[in-house]
Write a structure and sequence with these properties.
This protein has 6 helices and 7 strands; from the N terminus they run H-H-H-H-H-E-E-E-E-E-E-H-E. With about 300 residues, the protein is α+β, with helices and mostly antiparallel strands.
Amino acid sequence: MTEPVVAQSYHRQLAAVLLADATAGQAREQHQRLRADEAEARRRRADVTEQEQRRKAQGRRENDYAAMVFAALICLTVLGPYLIGHFAIRRTSLLAPDLRVFDGAVRGLTDHFGPDYLAGAAAVTAVLAVFLLVRPWSFRVSSVVIGWALVAGLVAWLLPLTTTKWHDAEQTSVTKLASTAFPFNDRFYSCDGYRYSINWSAGAVGGARSEVWQIYLSQAAGFAGGCNRIDVYNGWQRVGVFTTGDGDTFLSGRWANTDISVGVFYLNTIWVSVPTRNGGTMRFTLEGAQHNEFLLSYG
């Protein structure tokens, strides 16, 4: 009886082992299927995400291209960047005014057109670069590369060129303030005027330079009946002024001034003389005018 019982016990143990092994195998297969299903689900989600990113990137690339074309057209119009530079960028430190330019009207269109245009083009370039570099960057490699290239070109070339051209234009304006005549008649009433164009040699005080001295017969504010005032300008800078105090007025077209076309002269030897309606004579030198040394004599 013992031997059959042992055999039965052995068979039961073997069956249990086989059942456990089969169960473990099923569990492994089920776990592998679950992992495979999860991997497939992740892959599908990744595909959906990639497709969505590609779809969005396609729209962004189209906008990138449109923005680049639009920026190029603005720059090609010339007027667009110029207006941006002239009215907007001049208010920034990029086109900081030279403190020696005390009258902004001297800034000529031709002198400052270049830096105004370049400043406007720099602004357009900066806006375009920011637009291209706004994320996402996925599937927009060309746009991102162009954006960084624009930043590099802006920093390394366009901005330095703009400031250099602006400083050159401002220096031209500084020179014009001394070497050209002040537009007196465009701003004030004048009866007459006289002008000295002086080219100083290198040995002169202050070095070689060109100056335009002007004497204008003008009218004091509130006065009527002629010109009772003399304004003396060196370039665009008013250096002297005299106003008669008794209502007397100066006669136009009656100058008796030093002729500097021959000989050697200095500011203190260049005399200006103009008569008045009441028989007086105004005399002064260009040097004296700078110190308000005017002599009005009668008789």
